[in-house]
Amino acid sequence: MAIIDTLPAVDVSVQLNNSFRCADEYPDPNPYRRERYLGGVERVARNYVESQEGTEFCIHVNVKDEPSIDPWVYNEHGLLFFLYIDGIFMGKRFCQNKDFNRGDWQFTFSSRKQPNEDRSSLVESRFKFQSIVTVDGEPTHGDFRRARDLGIIEVKVKLGKASAMTNRRRRKNLERDFREPAVDSFLIPEEALKGRPIYHGTSFTAPERLPGGPPRYNSLKTATGALLATYTFKYRSKEALKIEEIIPRTPSPEPMPQRRSVRFDELNTVPRFEDLHQYEIERLARERLRQLRDEKLQTPSLKKRTYDDYCDLTQNDEQPVRPYKIIKMRSGHEAIDLTGGY
User: I need a surface site. Which of 41, 78, 256, 291 has the fewest CB within 10 A?
Assistant: First the structure.
């Protein structure tokens, strides 16, 4: 929400209908046209907000009953809030002392009300962000003026004073000239934009008829005084906010460091794991698994040998020596028969 330090009792915010909070605000660093304010004290809040295609929105105003506004809000004196969107007047509201409820005065600008074609009743069209469609053709002076204020929501706060009630036999706002709102579309000559990154404008939802009700005979008339404060919101798409450097651009992904080509046939070359490509890691893993499988298949089933297989400590060394057979050769010599056939 936008709050001016020298006017802390008033805050103005843009709210998207698809969210339960105020739109994010970003300070506007650009220069702007100066205006004359009450007492020569400039009271300005200037911010950017992000717009979303096809989203309805509203402008919420809240005034707190604080001593800081006592010089301007008392008796029949109060504050007049004027709303302009894309340079077009959308409505006004008068805040006076008797309208405060539990310490606050609140109002929400969410639509534009105007008479229908035959001026028999009022119709209401809600505000909506719409993508701009540029058309060819020579822009008129009105197109340039419209493009100048395009993408801007502005709330001006002026001093007001309630005067006598007027007695008119009419319905509210039926004295306005009829102007068909642009429903779900926003057309403008491309040349009128002058290359500015503005991709959204404000269109309206389809008109809905409001209950007519009894005619209003009495209408409060207000006198407008000096300009007290201005709240400006430049609405842009997210891409436009990046182009205008209001929000940082999405950083480009950092390039992956080039991996050194590894040759396994080089002598005394042991590559680091970090230098291996993914396909090389997978290949080495497959080779190792194959090697382990082959080793398992080729290994014979061996009996586990113990020390007893080499030295039987239970053997009895005192057993009698096996007898051997002595034979007598023809030469008369004696010999031992090793054939074992005995």
Answer: 256
